[in-house]
Design brief:
heterodimer, A: mainly alpha, 25 helices, B: alpha+beta, 21 strands, elongated
Chain lengths: ~500, ~350
Amino acid sequence: MPFLSVFGLAGIVAAFSLLPLGFVIWVTVQTGWDTVIALVFRGRVGELLINTVLLEVWTIPLSIILAVSLAWLTERTDLPGARLWAWLAVAPLAVPAFVHSYAWISIAPSLHGLSGGVLVSVLAYFPFLYLPVAAQMRRVDPAMEDVGASLGLGPWRVFFRVLLPQLRFAICGGSLLIGLHLLAEYGLFVMIRFDTFATAIVDQFQSTFNGPAANMLAGVLVLCCAGLLGLEVLIRGNERYARVGSGSARPITKHRLGWFTLPCLLIPLITSALALGVPFVTLTRWLIAGGTAVWNLDAISTAFSTTLFLAVAGALLATVAVIPMAWLSVRAPGRVQRVLEACHYYVGSLPGVVVALALVTITVRVVLPLYQTAATLLLAYALLFLPRALVGLRASIAQAPVELERAAMALGRTPAQAVMQITMRLATPGAAASIALVALGITNELTATLMLAPNGTRTLATEFWALTSEIDYAAAAPYALMMVVLSLPLTLLLHAQSKRIVGR
Amino acid sequence: MSFLDIQGVTKRYGVTTAVDDVTLSIEAGSRTAIVGPSGSGKTTLLRLIGGFEAPDDGRITLNSEILAEGLSIVPAHRRSVGFVTQDGSLFPHLTVAANIGFGLDKRSPDRDRRVLELMDMVELDRVMLHRRPHQLSGGQQQRVSLARALARQPQLMLLDEPFSALDTGLRESMRKVVAEVLKRAGITTILVTHDQAEALSFADHVAVMRQGKLVQAGPPRTLYLNPTDPTTASFLGDAILLPAELGDGWVDCAFGRLAAKTNKRLGSAQIMLRPEQLRLVTVPENEAVKTLENTVRYGKVVDIEFGGAVCTLMVAILDNQSVFNGGTPAPVQIKCSAVNLPSIDDHVRIEVLGEPHIFA
């Protein structure tokens, strides 16, 4: 039974992905009830909780409004340069969140606290909403809007009663992603001087290393993530929003903006100026101010190659790890498989600090030789980006119909040969794309890298972080530039991929 | 002035002219089918009538109200026009009841009653009321779509290939239901389709479009029996196109001399016969070979495609007088029923029912 061995492999990966959660539960039990209560129900945790809630309730609605307006303008109107604006609406993803805040505090040093955090978060994360919303807008059958109009609805009411409800899935998914990023992000909020659980945990970790206080904060943070996931399920519901019926959709008729063209152009223009112009101007300014002195080529090339190595190795590890699960969920879906798959997915919604804290504790207490090694760091990367790898690989395996495998077997190949020669061959481009996306994530990962990297390991992100912590902004600029340059092609890939999903 | 007047309407997309100077009038309470091959501009014409597009030129008036005059148009939501699309376009986020009631005022007290009334009207079971569109079959979705469009009691109903996504059997029964419902409601209807049989059976007025132009409009029977050109003839059904020599009240063609209204025309012309106008009678071979007169034609069956109710035969006409075609003429395709079906190599007498149509 070849299935069983595949099951076994998927089970092992699922077990690994349960490590962080297991750690939180174990540590809670270890700490003892009284201490837990003392550590959790205190003013500091309350403050952090209020901060987190405020951050989420400001950032997410603002991002939704911005992303939906931009998506509507670029996909459904005759806005001049719509394709360019669409690219520019995705491009901020190429700038790591902590580089966004670095750019903003260089330009406005007084920026801090909730308002600053919300501003930079919206600019750094709104593309996570723009991508799915724009994709969905391309998919919604334009005949629906015609029908809405024929039933007596003006353009505005058609938008709110017909189009917007059909974006619900996309908006929920994108909002969840942003919400989880807000919980996990460390660098952005440290620079903008806004305290969240992630910054508090790293502070605790750096002062008391592996104390119960940090562990309990991690526990509360995991609960926040769970709350967010539950909320999303609740809001999304389990309705089907797919296009009903068959037949090919008519191409979309673009709304004429007419006199509104100029005011409407201001929206993407201002957004791009804030989300791309500010980082660009700041980086250029620091690079010019720093001159050639900041280009310490040895340090930069070491950091660059280390980053590249870690990114590629981590991405390969993550992709190899999800092969059994991806194959199972496409070829042999079932109840057990869904549970295993859920294990693969949940771990990606955990903040890097929690995963890092778990791995630090486990290596220190159980397998000390692995503490602060590249292996542990790569494991952390693989866990953090497991869902990203799985989504990409599963979609590409699904593109190779099982009939092809059967045809290969009918032509004399063994099942294993058929999978390798046909399915995996066809899945290669998709798998390569998902490797690239995981690598992008690793390149810009800061928190887990700071906590787990072996002594002396310098990546672009950690080096950038070290230099900005010393307020040497000019010296940090080349590292920021390298990260953006590395991320840019991958971001373009992401955009292209989101278009291909809807068949364009 | 008729109920719906389309005058010289033109719509261009870049260099292609989708609708080219179309003029068409539609009477109140009538059922009109606009039929044409894909890309003929029929859907664009429908969208112009619905107000989803603005014409580049021309005028559309409904019940003496100008809906479109050149680029200035009354937008779709201010027209009293219902619209049913190919796959129903039900709102996937709403239940059947909410879909049907979508165009009704939410505060209206008899909204629920009206929704039920509409469901009964389109013969939709009331248990469907709280289902979602994806839980319905294709035919049920189309019924909901029709009920939704009827809710606002439109003056004009536009049907954009509403049956083409359905199975063959269901398609016919849906066509009957829709025709019946609209007739009872007394709503003027325009159906767009590429299926000529559907157009001929659904409508009391058919308009044929080709390459953006309106080729011919009229009652289905007229169009079928007296098409303006061979392309239209072939589009509306199988046609046997033949060269002929016209005489006074008759034509000479491969089927011999046939009575026809020649209207004093003389000389050669192209004529058309529908395959069902030909009847085959099996005869002994010697009769066929011996009695080759000018008024009766004999033939030899060279191929049979058995198809149950409608079988297709290829018949080589025995034509030793060679009225027009020198050499062996190409076999003619003839349809007949399975009753008394000849066999291959049988000799048959070909009888022509009715008159041939002479193209101008």
